[in-house]
């Protein structure tokens, strides 16, 4: 059986809630224990770094993809053994998507929102059929989920986002199950 790969989008900052870091670490450990390879943006700080630390600490594998300008700044996590350096942010997102069997967004900022929106748009356009999920730790994504409902209510979507395109869970293990990874 082929190894499953999960692309995890997450903040380069830890955020204001301790539960964000705890959930990132839990997800990383669960992935490592299940033999799921984690693909992420290779950052060493914030939730991104917490995921990498947890996966590696539990004996798992992380494949990092980082644009050259970030690698030059020394932003890559030093423990990542499989590191790909791309020419641009666009190439980075494409390469991460190519490698993944599924996608999860943890709390994060504009970069995380951009990655989530793009991978959902690609799913809606049938550019991929891979499952996408958000880890709604401390209700972080609740306002965005409401906005998706508003998009549907006002006729801007061919179908609702939550359910057909997006899995939502508050616990890492539950989300991995919904994505069909465990």
Q: Can you put this structure into words, describing what you see?
A:
It is globular and about 45 Å long. The longest helix is centred in the first third of the chain and has 17 residues, at 18-34. The protein has 182 residues and is an alpha/beta fold. The protein contains seven helices and seven strands. Helix 2 links the parallel strand 2 and strand 3. The model has no long low-confidence stretch (mean pLDDT 96). The chain has one domain (5-178): Rossmann fold (3-Layer(aba) Sandwich), CATH 3.40.50. A seven-stranded parallel sheet has the order 4-3-2-1-5-6-7, with helices on both faces.
Explain briefly what this protein structure is.
The protein has 182 residues and is α/β, with parallel strands linked by helices. It has seven helices and seven strands.
Major sheet attributes: 7 strands, parallel
Straight-line N-to-C gap: 13 Å
Poorly predicted spans:
none
Q: Which structural class should the secondary elements be placed in?
A: alpha/beta
């Amino acid at each position: 059986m082929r190894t499953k790969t999960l692309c995890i989008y997450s903040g380069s900052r830890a955020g204001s809630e301790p539960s964000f870091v705890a959930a990132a670490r839990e997800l990383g450990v669960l992935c490592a224990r299940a033999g799921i390879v984690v693909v992420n943006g290779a950052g060493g700080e914030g939730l991104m770094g917490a995921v990498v630390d947890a996966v590696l600490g539990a004996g798992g594998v992380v494949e990092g993809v980082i644009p050259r300008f970030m690698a030059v700044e020394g932003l890559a996590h030093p423990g990542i053994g499989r590191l790909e350096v791309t020419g641009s942010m666009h190439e980075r997102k494409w390469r991460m998507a190519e490698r993944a069997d599924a996608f999860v967004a943890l709390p994060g900022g504009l970069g995380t929102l951009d990655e989530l929106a793009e991978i959902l748009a690609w799913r809606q356009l049938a550019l991929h059929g891979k499952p996408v999920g958000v880890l709604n730790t401390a209700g972080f994504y609740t306002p965005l989920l409401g906005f998706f409902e508003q998009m549907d209510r006002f006729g801007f979507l061919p179908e609702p986002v939550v359910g057909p395109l997006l899995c939502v869970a508050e616990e890492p293990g539950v989300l991995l199950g919904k994505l069909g990874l465990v």
